[in-house]
Amino acid sequence: MPELPEAETLCRQLRQTVIGAQVVQTEMHDWKLGEIRGLEGRRILSINRWGKRVEMVLDDGVTMSLHLRMTGRLLWQNGTGLPPHSRFVMSLPQGKIILIDSRRFATLSVQVGAGCVPSGIDPLVEDAPLGLTAMSRGRLSPVKSFLMDQRCVAGIGNIYACEVLHATQISPWRRTCDLSFSDWEMMAGAMRSVLSKAIVCRGTTISDWRDLFGEEGEYQKYLMVYGREGEPCLRCGGRITRRKLSGVGTYFCPSCQV
DNA sequence: CCCTATGTTCCCAA
DNA sequence: CTTGGGAACATAGG
Q: How far is the CA of A158 from the C1' of C6 (A)?
């Protein structure tokens, strides 16, 4: 699933591919995405990310904002023909960017003027422990729900939440407000190491995810808990367990995560 | 064939 | 305000 590292991978690959290019044409193949107009002739100035969201800034103050949700992906193509589940195409002089999304949850919008309003703590900023501590005050919900709440932490989804919690040896069910400042320092450190490694690996390919050039990510080779139900914990040898937490499958080691 | 699981975000209700 | 459940959707697997 596209989370922060996957969105960041797309941003980096888009920057090296489409910066400065002029939009030749756009094609909409899914009414559910709404109408995307006014991009023809605009030049691509920059690519930004906030959390899991990818933004393309064009000239004349036009911004295209993309959220891939569950199965969305972007594909750079310079040949002809469209892959299955192609929903939107942006043609540039050197090739086209295709939005592919089998489950049709992805959202795309164009704003004139300001881009998205950032919310949630960026897990990679220098003073993340302070922000996390402040944000966590008084929250009774399990810490995993907090990590996955985009209004609290920007960019963490199920896979990386499971991995970060395993790295910190904290149970997904711990009450958010019970964590100390040093816990949040540890959490920020784990987020930084897990997410930056995943970015270098160009994301995690479990099933759908591919990078801009159609390549699988590599981080699935480094997963410590996600998808490893019944297998031994790579830290303590305990048995990895999967249990639902607020509706989603949560992988953890009951013997070293407390 | 049917049924379930998948995981993100929005919407609604308590 | 917080918290939790269901819906949106398509596909894979039992």
A: 19
**pLDDT tens per residue, range A12-59:** 999 999 999 999 999 999 999 988 999 999 999 999 999 999 999 999
Q: Which nucleotide lies at the shortest CA–C1' distance from A104?
A: C9
pLDDT tens, A120-156?
Answer: 999 999 999 999 999 999 999 999 999 999 999 999 9
Task: Give the nucleotide with minimal C1' distance to the Cα of A69.
Answer: B8
In the structure, how far is the CA atom of residue A189 from the C1' atom of nucleotide C8, in angstroms?
Answer: 35
CA of A90 to C1' of C13 (A): 35
Q: Which residue has the tokens 């422990």?
A: A129
A218 CB-contact burial (10 Å; exposed 0-12 / middle 13-18 / buried 19+): middle
* Entry pTM: 0.96
